[in-house]
Amino acid sequence: MFFTFMKIGAFTFGGGYAMISIIEDICVDKKQWISHDDMMNVTIIAESTPGPIAINCATFVGYQQAGLAGALSATLGVVLPSFFIIFLISLFFERFLEIRLIANGFKGVKVAVGILIWNGAVSMIKKMQKKALPMAIMAGSFGAMVFINLFSRNVSTVSLMLIAGAVSLTVFILRDLYK
Questions:
Q1: DSSP letter string over 1-67?
Q2: Per-residue pLDDT of the chain (179 residues; tens, 9 = 90+)
Q3: Distance between CA 5 and CA 52 in Å, rounded?
Q4: Cα dist. 28→6, 101, 122 in Å?
Q5: Gap between the Cα atoms of 6 and 55, Å rounded
Q6: What is the sign, positive or negative, of the torsion defined by CA atoms of 100, 101, 105, 106?
Q7: Overall pTM > 0.70
């Protein structure tokens, strides 16, 4: 488990969102450590709790497989590569971005990160339950984010998540009252 998450941490640039599709591919599809529903739930919970999303996902998967030892192993595996890479960069930071090859490489990495994030989102949308409420919340959130980005409004995505959660909770309560 340590080496699996070390590989994920070492070869995934762009943070947790870029790692989600790779974590899902390895942990759900290839190794079948968790189910797709577990992956969807842990992604939502990891986004809602403090800390980096990839670390929260790794900790959950590790815990599901081997308890506390698995959680520690998976967490260390996903964290150590980034730690060592950042440590090495910090030693040479002044000169690091002056190297034309590295500067151009980071431009390519930006594009790749965007594609990884998009791929993770599309994968989750395809596997999402096609019920009216989740689809409406997703469409509303997407529309709000497009509006916010196009018109340079300063609204936190956390606010959008809280609003979506409040709408879901309200509908859930109203459904229970009228059953």
A1: -HHHHHHHHHH--S-HHHHHHHHHIIIIIIS-SS-HHHHHHHHHHHHHSSS-HHHHHHHHHHHHHHH
A2: 999 999 998 877 667 777 888 888 899 999 999 998 898 888 888 877 777 888 888 999 999 999 999 999 999 999 999 889 888 878 876 677 778 888 788 788 878 878 877 887 887 788 777 888 778 878 887 888 788 888 877 777 778 778 878 888 888 888 888 87
A3: 14
A4: 17, 36, 16
A5: 11
A6: negative
A7: no
